[in-house]
Specification:
Blueprint lengths: L5 E9 L2 E2 L11 E4 L5 E10 L3 E6 L4 H4 L3 E4 L2 E4 L8 E8 L6 E9 L1
Parallel strand pairs: 3-9
Antiparallel strand pairs: 1-2, 1-4, 4-7, 5-8, 6-7, 8-9
GO biological process, one term: synapse organization
Protein name: Ig-like domain-containing protein
InterPro entries: Cell_Adh-Cytoskel_Orgn, Ig-like_dom, Ig-like_dom_sf, Ig-like_fold, Ig_sub, Ig_sub2
Length: 110
């Protein structure tokens, strides 16, 4: 059976819990983490063909801004996060069909 093409959809999870579940909800998603801990955000993506994923932070690419961050497949890791690394993180998925799917989460570091 041939798979039909489908535009991308996105969810962001941290610690195994969904952060962005419904498009219609206007509540802000916030993840609070202690300075020095490891931030791990995973972008769960569906779509056919398989969407390309890009993580960004408020202004610019995550990897351009932080030397201690890494992106592996769908997961963004920042080891020993600093307070200055808090802010809004975006996961953008696109596969050339329809509009890109974008989700965000605000990370507060204390």
């Amino acid at each position: 059976m041939e798979r039909r093409e489908a535009p991308p959809s996105v969810r962001i999870i941290h610690s195994g819990h969904a952060c962005n579940v419904e498009e219609e909800r206007h509540t802000e998603r916030v993840y609070t983490i202690r300075e020095g801990e490891t931030l791990e955000l995973t972008c769960l993506v569906t779509g056919h063909p398989r969407p390309q994923i890009r993580w960004t932070k408020t202004a610019g690419s995550v990897s351009d801004r932080f030397h201690d961050s890494s992106v592996f497949n769908q997961t963004l890791n920042i080891a020993k996060i600093l307070r200055t690394q808090g802010g809004r993180y975006y996961c953008k998925a696109e596969n050339g069909l329809g509009s890109p799917a974008i989700k965000s989460i605000r990370v507060d570091v204390y």
